[in-house]
Amino acid sequence: MTRALKVLLVDDDEDIRAIGEMALTEVGGMQTVLASSGAAALGLAAREQPDVVLLDVMMPGLDGPTTFRRLRDDPSTAAIPVVFVTAKVQRSEVERYVEMGAAGVIGKPFDPMRLPDDVRAILDKTGGEAPRA
Amino acid sequence: MSADPAEGARVQLVELRSRFGARLRERLEQLAALVERAHAGASPEALAEALGAAHRLAGTSGSYGFVDVSEAVAALERALQRITEGEAEWELALASLARAQQAVQ
Known about the structure:
The structure holds 2 protein chains of 2 kinds.
Chain A: E1 6-10, H1 14-27, E2 31-35, H2 38-48, E3 52-56, H3 64-73, E4 82-86, H4 91-100, E5 104-107, H5 115-126
Parallel strand pairs in A: 1-2, 1-3, 3-4, 4-5
Helix pairs in contact in A: 2-3
Chain B: H1 5-39, H2 44-63, H3 67-84, H4 90-103
Helix pairs in contact in B: 1-2, 1-4, 2-3, 3-4
């Protein structure tokens, strides 16, 4: 039996965390760790060593891109793939995040029944490793 | 108890959606208060706060399947963004807010 994928979901909106956790855990059979801020995500990522981080872009305090750079700067989290979750899925925005080194981008709103497949598809494409910026 | 994990997930999704739906009107009222404060010319911070709240609610309501509300709030967010950039579009912003409020009646 293969180990369940461990996902760190970072979003300041409690309702998004609730539906994201349900989708990843119940639909996708994944193990989910939740963070309500970028600052909380940094510690959790280092401690939990998730297989992937789903990172909201627009958050108060440390926003998604800043949190991403901090994760990359820490050797213990630098190799963890990060997927941005954002309402801004215009091509230029997606290219900007991929150029930064993100594994991919998932649009918001998302379909909770499809979210786990979308995460797996991105990880399959990158081989489960953080792409180099 | 459901034996099919996908069916179990659907049941949980319906429950989550129902709980979110019960709070949606309140969240829209909070958003409306922020928009009214920004419209009254309170401060750039008030406009930024309204913009952030609209951004969050557009994404969240859509993820819970409230598509009409999500689209109307996304239109409000776009209008607020243009106002932030110096283009007056309060009529469009207020009309989008009214459309979102009607969608939860």
